[in-house]
Predict the 3D structure of the following.
Amino acid sequence: MLHGTVSRHSGENLYLRKFCLIIISLALVSIHIQAQNGWTQKADIPTPRLVASASVVNGKIYVIGGWDVNINELANNEMYDPLTGSWEIKAPLPTPRGCLLTAVVNDSIYAIGGGYSSYKLKVEVYDPVTNTWTQKNDMPSGRIGQNAAIVDGIIYVEGGNYNSRECWAYNPSTDTWTRKQDIPLPGRGNSSLTVYNGFIYAIGGSTYSPWNALPYVFAYNPQTDTWTQKQSMPTARFGLQTYLVDGLIYAVGGGQYDNSAIATIEVYYPETDRWATCPDMSKGLIWFAGAFVYDTVYVFGGIPAGWGSVESKVWACYKSALPVELTSFTASASGTEVTLCWSTATELNNQGFEVQRKFSSNDFVTIGSVTGHGTTTSPNQYSFVDKLIDPGKYLYRLKQIDYGGTYEYSNEIEVDVRVLDKFTLEQNYPNPFNPTTTIGYVLQERSNAKLILLTALGEEIAVLVNEEQDKGYHKVEFSAKGGSAAGGDALNLSSGVYLYKLQAGSFVATKKFVLIK
């Protein structure tokens, strides 16, 4: 089976753990903060550079190509061994270039496009076992600033120089290129591509004349060869990196005009097509290379802003920057109290949880908070009691907040709160309905319950329930078509207003519902 990973000139897709992204710049500010926040400085990269590309094969990181501070195109291929912390010089890239992309398919590294003095069409493949390069069929058109992603062993290349909209698919098995559907809007240089659930998300980018940062997000479906525009990124930028972390896409750094660098971090939720803002990096960074191996994130080179200097620093962050891993979240009602219980397997930088509640069509509101355990790899249990609330259906969720202000929400859970110390006939739900609805009622004590369906004039149509029932809550799933009464008579009602009546001992109550066909 084909498998692969992809890197861009702005760096490889890093499968970071949540929150590691949030503090990336803290490790880049200066040497004086090394070993803080989980980041440690490693051996400098032998050749300082920007717009290089990094790929991982069998636990080794290969940093390939790039530019120096004078925009000289580099052929350097340097391998970093995370286990020994050492560098080794490997066979140079046959065609020197920066702003290239690299992609790994079946343990071979494909170096595609790039350049500066001229736009390269080259596709060159590096074999780490033999330390040799092999030339493949050229790209159909040369370009720099293009981006790529891998789906099912196929390398998809999108955008690039001079406002290109082109999208191509390269099949390493057949060494062939196939034109795909153009991305809808031009100006896709220096964007970033990330794969989620089989879709390729193209985020940000720039036009070239003039240089303008773009906020656009498009999702590409390789199965149908179609693009769909999604919610735009709040902050327009190019030269950014995106990372897929636990089903969320983090957009980190980048620039908004020529030679700029910004510190903005934003997170995209693919399932709900929405963006949220995270705390900024303390220092803007653009065009560094990165890799993820042995549960550790590595950052190589890049520039903080402008062209005055190029970084040689290498920083590493072990994945002990763990997310808050919620393993359970439950709710139980007793009278007018709801008890919420949840547990975590691990926590990182966890300040605590806000407990939020929603009733009917209202928005969620915060009703309390529970302090977290900071950073821990031990399981923890939490609980919260919501007291003295009215009967009805409620939704609850948790808002987990870290010390830096980053937050995320848990799944929502529904609780049905009922008073069980008196007879009650509830309004059916939904209402109006077609063709089914639920009728609920509460028996204060064990009783003979009789639930009757009536016309709007009070004429009996059918008996839905007629039996001895225990104390507590009961419900009937009623269908206006093909349903049956307690006596077995088939029902086939027309649209209109109907009544239903509950008799239990001396208790009698009647409510109205509406059938719409």
The chain has three domains: 4-318, 325-417, 424-515. The two ends are 52 Å apart (CA to CA).
